[in-house]
Amino acid sequence: MINDLTTGNPLKLILLFSVPLLIGNIFQQFYNIADIVIVGRTLGIDALASVGAVAPLFFLIMFVVVGMTNGFAVITGQRFGAKDYDGVRRSVTMSTILSTVLTLFFTFLCLGLMDYLLKWMQVPAQIYKDAYIYIQIVIMGLFVANFYNLLASIVRALGDSKTPLYFLIFSSILNVFLALLFILVFHWGVPGSAVAVVLSQVVSVILCFVYVKKHFPILHLKREDWIFNKKEDWQFALEHLNVGFPMAVQFSILGLGILIIQSVCNSFGADVIAAMTAALRIEQIATMPMVSFGVALAAFVAQNFGANNFKRIKVSVKKVSVINLHLSVIMAFVMHFWGSGFVKIFIGGQNPDVIKIAHDYLFISSLFYFFLSQIFIYRNALQGLGRATIPLLASIGELAMRAFAAIYLAVKFGYVGMFFSGPIAWVTASIVLAGGYYTNIHRFIREAQEAVRGKSVIKA
């Protein structure tokens, strides 16, 4: 259902919008975790490590797709907030064209360079074959993932966070069923897990497309919406790229930072790889509520930016920031006392060394969740404002800090030094993003007030 976020109680709207996102994120993680649990419990530590060793590479590519589609959807949301429905349809077709071309490019590029990438990542020889096959299969399914993320981001830009959730839940359950079928019945091993991921995404995209076509009249595209031969069309494409490209680069920098950490992690052997694979999945679950508020805020800010409701944006960002602060404290407490128990869900209780490594990581990183929680707020707020340059700069700073921790601290202190890569990066990025947000929102409010005064003078 389409939802206008420019009127009504801001906090109530954001809370209602974020609940389906949170549920969706839970199932998205369930989607990913199911592979890890099934592989780890049925095929062993080496199989788990083979999936974990290349997961950051897949995330890097997915980050590009997610950043790009979310960036394009900012323009869609702004057009919707301005009540420009022709612009909404035109934005949808432009987003489809641009994301399709760019996704195909990245797919073929990655498939061609895969062997070099895995060698650079120092994937151990004992898990190399399974890791290579797994990542090849999921990268070939990137085109499908692009269409799901594009549809989901467009629908969310129109104020509907529930529709993508329904199909994500169905897809997640289907993924578990297929993974069990391919691994336990067909005995396909690690590649079976990858095939299950891609096939379940295919079904999700088909269902989501049919539903949107039937229930979203505003997205009923016309023949003229697809025409791309005028100067205005190129300008409109550039408008999308001006937001989508920096967000794609920004997300890719985050993914590259994780990739660097993983390459260092791979040098410590299968136990550390397996421990980090489990710990990072647990951390993703712990931070999902904070992520959901951030995504909801991006849609809210984009629509209200289109409607020039800047004071409404400022008040809402402040309130959601406080909520995320409280969530960060709660999640840190949970990770401290129950982190080891969560790790055992992935690998059982027969590997105490792996469990200890994973818990040590969760103990250290959770102390800095406050900074991470604010990143989700200010980054999404800036993206909703269409200001993608500052998040890009913050991501560059984050990458530099991650690389420093990975290369210097890991060499000096072992894998424990590597655990500080995230916290150092979070502190750096949160400072840059907060400063950038408040500078921009105050400027927008001042310009709006000056415009009102100017109109009053003209009338007088």
Question: Secondary structure elements and their pairing?
Answer:
Blueprint: H1 10-43, H2 45-81, H3 85-120, H4 125-140, H5 142-157, H6 163-185, H7 190-215, H8 231-266, H9 270-286, H10 288-306, H11 310-347, H12 352-366, H13 369-384, H14 389-413, H15 415-418, H16 421-459
Helix pairs in contact: 1-2, 1-6, 1-7, 1-9, 1-10, 1-11, 2-3, 2-4, 2-5, 2-8, 2-9, 2-10, 3-4, 3-5, 3-8, 4-7, 5-7, 6-7, 8-14, 9-11, 9-12, 10-11, 10-13, 11-12, 11-13, 11-16, 13-16, 14-16
| Helix content bin | over 70%
Q: Please indicate the count of domains.
A: 1
Mean pLDDT: 81
Put simply, the count of helices is: 16
Major sheet description: none
How large is the radius of gyration? 22 Å
Provide the β-strand percentage band. Answer: under 5%
Separation of the first and last Cα atoms: 44 Å
What is the global morphology? globular
Assign the structural class, choosing from mainly alpha, mainly beta, alpha/beta, alpha+beta, or little secondary structure.
mainly alpha
Describe the structure concisely for a colleague.
The protein has 460 residues and is mainly alpha-helical. It has helices at residues 10-43, 45-81, 85-120, 125-140, 142-157, 163-185, 190-215, 231-266, 270-286, 288-306, 310-347, 352-366, 369-384, 389-413, 415-418, 421-459. The mean pLDDT is 81.
What does this 3D model show about the protein?
With 460 residues, the protein is mainly alpha-helical. It has one domain. The protein contains 16 helices and no strands. It has helices at 10-43, 45-81, 85-120, 125-140, 142-157, 163-185, 190-215, 231-266, 270-286, 288-306, 310-347, 352-366, 369-384, 389-413, 415-418, 421-459. Helix 2 runs antiparallel to helix 3, helix 4 runs parallel beside helix 7 (190-215) and helix 10 (288-306) packs antiparallel against helix 11. The model has no long low-confidence stretch (mean pLDDT 81).
